[in-house]
Design goal:
alpha/beta; about 450 residues; about 45% helix; globular; two-stranded antiparallel ribbon; 8-stranded mixed β-sheet
């Protein structure tokens, strides 16, 4: 009886319908949606928020609160954030802050962090849910609908037009095994209109944990518009010596554009990049000039650059390391996933730090090689110092808070519903962890 029930349940296919719209044939490309970091002035402040459910969203929110406390002229550092990247739970905070800016501080805690975002989700262990898991995922679009109704209210990417910050929401393309960045280049390759795509759907894709959720699906529309792939894409995918991250990403864009794929299936961004750093890395690796992805004018003026990686990832857990048997079942799946994600983020953070150091050196060398005529063309003042460029990269994690406190935060589950006392612990923890960052304090002092 049970076997036959499993067989019947397993036959039920669970999937999401694509909701992205095509670009018109008269529309050459996606325009007006800010998907490239718009640096301004002599300071660049970039944030990336890791995955980890409401735990990550609250910890990241604490970092935003601390930035609001730091004065910068007539503004605060919260007003000076140029770029924010989000993965999974961190993408909720990133998207909401990108929409509301400083107004996000007023209601994000009540509107999302204290809410039960699991209401309406299938979370219980049952025969029916096992069948749905085998059929593609226990839940389909419930979380996307909840986010749209309770948090984003039907807002689309068209709302990201305008001033800072630029927002990147990151998911995982599970066919190509690469990051999927909800941005202009990606949607140009799909021949799809990003301005009409709902932010809630992108955030749901970024947080779509495998098995718990069916993949979010996008359709490709090859030949339906006049978009061209950027020149670097063809160079990267045709050169076997290209750095693997860049080549894999370029190959995926090429498959979208050329019609090799009808549908793109997206799951949790943490599967390939739980820090949300791949997009920035790709932008630097794809550059043809030493200062890119900045413009000449931006690179000539910048003095201080800060990349803050806000990490609310899971620590070690479970008691099976102290007994012969185990892990088994759910613990085994969780341990395998955590092992893969942790190994990935450690290597990606080290690679990103090295990449930024190398990029900063190239920017300095380019600046110091400018002729007098070029300096005049760029409007640089007398006394301008070509080598006055410093970049900081720092990870803001629970470990900044000391063993007893970090242990309490690591014990908080990575769910989409937490009690108020845990939410507030995480918010204050994020603020305190940023205050304890020596790199951030050095950045502040150099402003």
């Amino acid at each position: 009886m049970v076997v036959s029930a499993l067989a019947v349940a397993g036959c039920a296919s669970v999937y999401n319908l694509p909701s992205n719209q095509p670009l018109g044939t008269a529309q050459p490309a996606n325009i007006g949606v800010g998907t490239e970091p718009a640096f301004d002035g002599d300071v660049v402040l970039a944030l990336s928020f890791s995955g980890g459910g409401t735990r990550a969203a609250a910890f990241s929110f604490g970092v935003l609160n601390e930035l609001e406390r730091v004065r910068f002229g007539k503004e605060t550092l919260l007003d000076r954030v140029d770029f924010v990247s989000g993965v999974s739970g961190g993408s909720v905070t990133a998207a909401y802050y990108g929409l509301k800016r400083r107004n996000a501080l007023a209601d994000f805690r009540e509107r999302f962090l204290l809410r039960n975002a699991e209401e309406g989700l299938r979370t219980e262990l049952s025969l029916g849910n096992l069948g749905r898991a085998l059929g593609g995922g226990v839940n389909d679009s419930q979380f996307s609908r909840w986010l749209d109704h309770n948090v984003f209210e039907g807002t689309t990417f068209s709302a990201f037009r305008g001033d800072r910050p630029t927002v990147w929401i990151n998911a995982s393309d599970i066919y190509n095994r690469v990051p999927f960045i909800f941005g202009k280049d990606t949607f140009d390759a799909l021949c799809s209109d990003i301005s009409s795509y709902r932010i809630a759907d992108a955030v749901a894709a970024s947080a779509a944990v495998p098995v718990a959720f069916a993949p979010i699906v996008l359709q490709t529309f090859p030949g339906g518009c006049a978009t061209r792939l950027p020149d670097w894409v063809e160079r990267a995918r045709s050169n076997a010596a290209t750095q693997p991250l860049l080549r894999s990403y370029a190959s995926a864009l090429g498959r979208y554009h050329d019609g090799d794929m009808k549908f793109v299936k997206l799951l949790d961004g943490g599967l390939v990049d739980n820090y949300g750093l791949s997009g920035l890395s790709i932008g630097i690796l794809a550059a043809q000039r030493p200062f890119e992805p900045m413009t000449e004018h931006q690179a000539a003026r910048v003095r201080r650059i800060m990349f803050l990686v806000v990490d609310a990832g899971r620590g070690v857990s479970g008691d099976w390391a102290n007994r012969l048997e185990g892990p088994s079942g759910v613990d085994l799946v969780a341990a395998a996933a955590d092992t893969a994600i942790d190994a990935s983020v450690r290597s990606s953070y080290a690679a990103f730090s090295a990449l930024i150091n190398d990029w900063t050196f190239k920017v300095r060398r380019w600046r110091c090689g400018l002729s007098a005529a070029e300096r005049a063309r760029l409007g640089l003042p007398p006394g301008w110092k070509c080598n006055d460029v410093v970049a900081f990269v720092d990870r803001i994690g629970f470990d900044r808070l000391g063993a007893p406190r970090s242990g309490l935060l690591e014990a908080i589950p990575t769910r989409l519903a937490l009690p108020p006392e845990q939410v507030d612990m995480l918010i204050e923890g994020g603020a305190d962890a940023l205050r304890r960052s020596t790199a951030f304090q050095s950045f502040r002092q150099g402003l």
